[in-house]
Write a structure and sequence with these properties.
267 residues, mainly alpha, 2 strands
C-alpha cells in the first residue's frame, strides 16, 4: 500500500515513535466504545505483552508489507471485529474506528517531531493521507486527509466530553499502564505511566483517574537530551523497525548483505 517515498514509511520506521505508544493506548481506552469492547472481549489484563505484540505486528505489516500481508491482516481483523459488539459498542463503528486511527496519527507525529525531525505541514498532510488509506484496511471508509482536517477532528473530540465519560474507560486505561501480568510488564508499569502522563492532558488523566508520576519529568528530560543526538549515529538494526528493514530489501534486493546504515536512512 505504501512505498519508500511515503510518509508512512518515513515516520513509522523509527522505533522511537513507540515511546508514544502508552499514550495512544490511553487515548484509545478513553473512548467509551473502545473501552467497552476491550473490557468485554480482550485478555488485556492477563496477556498484555501478547496483545501489544499482535497489535504492533498488524500495524507494521500493513505499513510495510506487500499485498498478501495486507490482505491477511484485513481478513484477520475483520473476523475478530465481527464478534466485538454488544450494548453500547461495536468494533466496526466508524466513530470508534476513526478515533483509534487518530490516536495512531497523533502518537506517531508527536514522537517523530519531538525526537527525529520537524514535519512541515505538507509532510503532515502526507502522513494523515497515508493513515486514511491505512484505515481502509480495517473498514474505515472516511477519515481526515489533511493535517488541518485532522486537528479539527482531534480538537472536537478532546473538547466534546465524550472521552473518559464511562467509568470503564478509566478501568481499561489504568490496566493498560499498570497491567497485573506478566511480571515483566508489571515491573515496567512506572515507565508506562511516565510515558503516558507526558502526552495525555491532565484533564483527561483526571477523568481516567490516572495519576501523574514523579518519574515523568526526569525520564522525558533524559529522552529529550539524548535521543535527537543519538539517533543519527544509531545503526539501522537498532533505529529502524525490522518490518521496515525487510521492506527496503524487498524494494531493492541489491541492499541485501550491505548492512549500510546510510543507505537505509536515506529511504
Amino acid at each position: 500500500m505504501f512505498g519508500p517515498s511515503s510518509m508512512m514509511w518515513r515516520v513509522n520506521r523509527e522505533r522511537v515513535v513507540l515511546l508514544a505508544g502508552p499514550a495512544a493506548a490511553v487515548w484509545q481506552a478513553a473512548h467509551p466504545q473502545v473501552a467497552r469492547g476491550v473490557a468485554r472481549h480482550s485478555k488485556f489484563r492477563e496477556d498484555g505483552i501478547g496483545r501489544l505484540r499482535r497489535t504492533l505486528d498488524a500495524v507494521y505489516r500493513v505499513a510495510f508489507g506487500g499485498a498478501g500481508e495486507v490482505e491477511a491482516v484485513r481478513q484477520s481483523v475483520a473476523r475478530a471485529h465481527r464478534a466485538v459488539r454488544g450494548e453500547g459498542y461495536d468494533a466496526v463503528d466508524p466513530g470508534a474506528q476513526r478515533w483509534v486511527l487518530a490516536t495512531l496519527v497523533m502518537a506517531s507525529a508527536t514522537a517523530y517531531r519531538r525526537f527525529v525531525a520537524p514535519l512541515p505541514e505538507a509532510e503532515l498532510d502526507g502522513l494523515v493521507s497515508d493513515y486514511a488509506l491505512f484505515g481502509t484496511v480495517f473498514g474505515l471508509a472516511e477519515a481526515p486527509r489533511t493535517w488541518g482536517e485532522f486537528r479539527g477532528y482531534w480538537d472536537a473530540m478532546t473538547n466534546s466530553g465524550e472521552l473518559g465519560s464511562d467509568p470503564v474507560c478509566g478501568e481499561v486505561a489504568r490496566a493498560v499502564v499498570a497491567p497485573r501480568s506478566p511480571w515483566a510488564m508489571r515491573l515496567a508499569s512506572p515507565l508506562w505511566k511516565a510515558l503516558a502522563a507526558e502526552l495525555v492532558p491532565g484533564e483527561l488523566r483526571t477523568k481516567l483517574r490516572l495519576e501523574d508520576t514523579r518519574w515523568r519529568a526526569p525520564l522525558w528530560n533524559a529522552l529529550d537530551a539524548v535521543l535527537p543526538a543519538l539517533l543519527p549515529l544509531a545503526p539501522s538494526i537498532f533505529r529502524f523497525a525490522p518490518h521496515y528493514r525487510r521492506a527496503v530489501l524487498r524494494a531493492d534486493p541489491s541492499e541485501s548483505g550491505r548492512g549500510s546504515r546510510r543507505r537505509l536512512s536515506r529511504r
